[in-house]
Specification:
The protein is α/β, with parallel strands linked by helices. About 35% of the residues lie in helices and about 15% in strands.
Length: about 475
């Protein structure tokens, strides 16, 4: 007989085991919460090193929200003019959208598209100032995407996926390259002040990447970055004393916990916020700009002042080391010209044409052209058929994206849509191909720029994408 002191302990029931282990589960939950807070503070460092020598080190993305009409701006279609007022020929097949617009008559280009510059690249009269830059533009006429709806199309153009919650292009570039300026974020977004973006902030979100890589919005007005300035009753001396005290106590706390990388990274995120309070006000202060520069960007004209101001701010950000600047044109409706393309595009082209041309010129004269990639485009294009007589519906099957900068060939048109501009037909460039090419220009193999999440190595282009080498200078 086994003595009582050596008797086997009775087996625990599942209910008893869970009760006894409750404290352990609490510790696991606490660890998960702290890890989440740590990720929110953006502790994971960027890679900071490209795979090969980059052709550019920064990106300016001019996002024309709503879908600009490629056949009215950059993609000349003589057959569309010849067939104006007639149904889409049967040879093009029926295209079914939510409005079944394939039966609507074809709408001709609304303003002339003409050869420009020494290259003869065709640009519309809608964009007379950008037309003067034709020899610097690389016009990709054969883009195509997967969704006819704005939010999903915005997500795909921004993140590579039609689903919400994936990391944006700017976040991937922030993760890959980091910031050239330790006092500023690597990724800054300037939304249109007129309204929201269809799809909202997830279009510049970090997804599963650390939160440090999400876009930092810069808004119009006296307070462009929220919580940037201390309260009015806090003097500079008081602020300095407070920050010094917090930094000293943080260092003392860290010294007692040697090797705590998470705590060290969190302290660094607080220090970045403090440095931004000093650096960002100068960034958004245009007082140092000359009258000539302000006039160049159209700050003297009510129609161009708002967008011109943001373009000028974008240039200041790029020259101060911000890696990725995304500037939106178009409010909630934006370039979504269902009712009247001529009225819609005339207004938006007047607002953006002069500032964008000024920005291209200014990047050149300030020595930023050769290593900056400029991207112009929307989430899709527009149909060659009319809608409501004078408008056009969404067209993800064929549209145009424009590139510029020293990394790409200027004065060329690459690819083609069919005879009326309905579908990409020649040298087709999917959104994944466009993203792969942008990453390649920045020195990254898009198949190797990955982040481990949900049990697999995730990437911007998922399992797709090919670099379009023909676009490269």
């Amino acid at each position: 007989m086994v003595p009582p002191s050596h008797a086997a302990a009775p087996l625990l029931s599942r209910r008893a085991m869970l009760k006894e282990a409750g404290g352990g589960f609490g510790a696991v939950a606490l660890a998960a919460l702290l890890a989440g807070e740590t990720r929110a503070a953006g502790v994971a460092p960027s890679l900071g090193k490209p795979h090969f020598a980059p052709r550019a080190v920064r990106v300016l993305y001019l996002f024309m929200h709503g879908g600009p009409s490629h056949v009215d701006l950059f993609d000349p279609k003589p057959d569309l003019a010849k067939l104006a007022g007639k149904p889409l020929p049967d040879s093009f097949g029926m295209v079914m959208t939510r409005r079944k617009v394939a039966a609507n008559p074809l709408l001709p280009p609304l303003l002339p598209l003409r050869p420009r510059g020494e290259s003869g690249l065709v640009v519309s009269d809608f964009l007379p100032e950008m037309a003067k830059c034709a020899d610097d533009l690389c016009v990709v006429r054969s883009c195509h995407a997967d969704s006819v709806n704005h939010p999903q199309a915005v997500y795909q153009m921004s993140t590579g996926s039609i689903l919400m919650g994936k990391p944006s292009l700017g976040s991937w570039i922030s993760y890959g390259l980091g910031s050239e300026n330790q006092d500023m974020p690597a990724f800054i977004v300037m939304p249109d002040p007129g309204g929201g973006l269809k799809g909202g902030p997830p279009a510049w979100g970090n997804g599963f990447l650390p939160a440090a890589h999400q876009g930092t919005p810069v808004r119009p007005g006296a307070n462009p970055i929220l919580h940037l300035r201390p309260p009015a009753d806090v003097s500079d001396e008081r602020r300095t004393r407070m920050l010094d005290f917090v930094a000293r106590r943080n260092r003392e706390h860290l010294a007692q916990r040697e090797g705590d990388d998470e705590l060290a990274a969190r302290i660094k995120s607080y220090e970045l916020a403090a440095r931004m309070q000093s650096a960002a006000p100068e960034l958004v202060d245009l007082a140092s700009e000359t009258a000539e520069t302000e006039q160049l960007y159209g700050l003297d004209d009510p129609e161009t002042r708002e967008f011109g101001t943001r373009c000028l701010l974008a240039r200041r950000m790029l020259e101060r080391g911000v890696r990725f600047v995304q500037l939106y044109s178009g409010d909630t409706v934006g370039w979504d010209a269902h009712e009247d393309v001529l009225k819609n595009h005339s207004k938006l082209c007047r607002a953006t044409d002069r500032p964008i041309a000024a920005l291209l010129q200014d990047l050149k004269r300030r020595g930023l052209w050769d290593d900056t990639l400029i991207v112009w485009g929307g989430e899709f294009g527009r149909m060659p058929m009319s809608e409501k007589g004078k408008g056009r519906d969404h067209n993800p099957w064929g549209f145009t994206t424009v590139l510029a900068g020293g990394a790409v060939r200027g004065g060329i048109a690459y690819g083609a849509t069919d005879a009326v501009g309905l579908r990409a037909e020649e040298n087709k460039v999917h959104v994944h191909d466009l993203h792969a090419t942008i990453l390649h220009i920045l020195g990254f193999d898009h198949t190797r720029l990955t982040y481990s999440h949900s049990g697999r190595e995730q990437r911007l282009t998922d399992v797709h994408g090919n670099v379009v080498h023909e676009l490269l200078a």
